[in-house]
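Give me C-alpha cells for this 422-residue protein.
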Amino acid sequence: MNIKIYPAALTGTIPAIASKSAAHRALICAALGDSPCAVRLPESCNDIEATISCLKSLGAKTEPNGNCVTVIPIKPNNSSVTLDCGESGSTLRFLLPVAAALGMNARFTGAGRLPQRPLSPLKEQLACHGITTAQNAVSGEIISLSGQLASGEYSLSGSVSSQFITGLLFALPMLDGDSRITLTSPLQSAGYVDMTIEMLEAFGVGVDLAQSSLFIKGGQKYVSPKELDVEGDWSNAAFWLVAGVLGGNIRVKGLSLSSAQGDRKIIDILRQMGADITFDGEILRAGKSRLRATDIDASDIPDLVPVLAVAASVAQGTTTIYNAGRLRMKESDRIKTTCEMIKSVGGEIAEKADSLVIRGRPQLDGGICDSFNDHRIAMSLAAASAACAGPVVIENAQAVNKSYPSFFEDFRVLGGNVQVQN
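Here you go.
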C-alpha cells in the first residue's frame, strides 16, 4: 500500500491506542496465571496477534469479547510446539525463557528482519541453565530449544536489549529455586524493565531490584487480578505530538504522566526544544511551535529516534541524537533508514556509527520514501508531512499494521489529506 499525504494542519482530539509494550506483558502474565483474566485491549496489531497466537500454541486459550480478550491460562498439552512470532522481537525474546521454564520443546519462527535480530547473550544464559538450543535457518527456524530451565545466577549485559531481562523475569519466578540476574553494564531502556516489574506485581509476583542486579524468589504463583486495563501508548502518541508541534493543534487523551513507559520522555524532549505542550486532566495538547535544536541521548528511548529526527529537521540549529547504535538491529537499520527518510523529504542529516546529526531548516520539501517495512519510519513520514511544502508519498505504508493498524484512519480524523495509491 502506497500512501500520498498532502500537507495540512492536523487539529482535533484522538484517543491514545493501547500500549503494545504493556499489552505483551499483560497477555503473557495472564497466560501464566491461576485463573482467567479479562485484558481490556481496545485495539490490537500484528505484534500483539503474534503474542496471542504463540500463547495459544503454548496451551493458553483466548476469548475475544468486544474491547476485551479473556485469557485462559496455559495448560501444556503438547511437549513439542512451534511458535510463529511474526516480526515481533518482544514476542520472541519474552517467550523463549517462558517456554524453557515450562519445560517445552519449542521451535520459534518469524519473518522480516526478526531472524537477524540478536539473541545473544540470552541464548547463552539459557544454555548455561539446562536448555539445549539449535538453529536451522534453512527451514525458517530462528531457534529451537529443549530441556528444563534451572534457577540460579544469571549474568547479562544491560546494553543489548531489555527484552532479554523481561523474558527472564517472566520465567524465573515459576522455578523451584531462587535466581539472580546480575547486570554487567548499565541498563538501557530501563523503563521497559520497570513496566515488566509493575505488571508482575499486578499478578502477585515480586522482584527485588538493586542497583546492578535483580533478585527473583522461586516458587511464586501468578495470581490473576480477574481483569486488567492496558494503558495508553506513549510510543505511538509521539507521532501525534510531533505532528501537532510542527503545524497543528492536536490533543491526545488517555495517557498517564506516571507511566513507567520510557517514551513518556517525548514531552520533556519536545519542551526542551521549545514545544508548546500542555497537560490538562487526561488531555495532552501539542500546538504549533518554533523549535530549537538540542542534543538527545537515545539510550533509553530508541523507538522515538525517527520521529525526533523529524522534529529536529525543522528546529533552528544542529541536533545530535547519540547512543543510538542499537537502532541498527530494529525492524530496519533505523540509523540508516531515518537518515534516508529525512533526506527524502529535503532535510539535512548525517549518519554516524551510533548517532545522527541533523541540521534544521525552516521547512521540508516533501518527497517519496519507502517505509523499509518499519512502522515507525512510516508514521514518522506522515508526521513530517505537517512541515512540508509539497506532498509526501510513503511506499509500503502497510508497515503501520505492526503496531497501529488504524493510524491513517486517525490521521484523517485529524484533518489529514490522505490518498491511497494503486
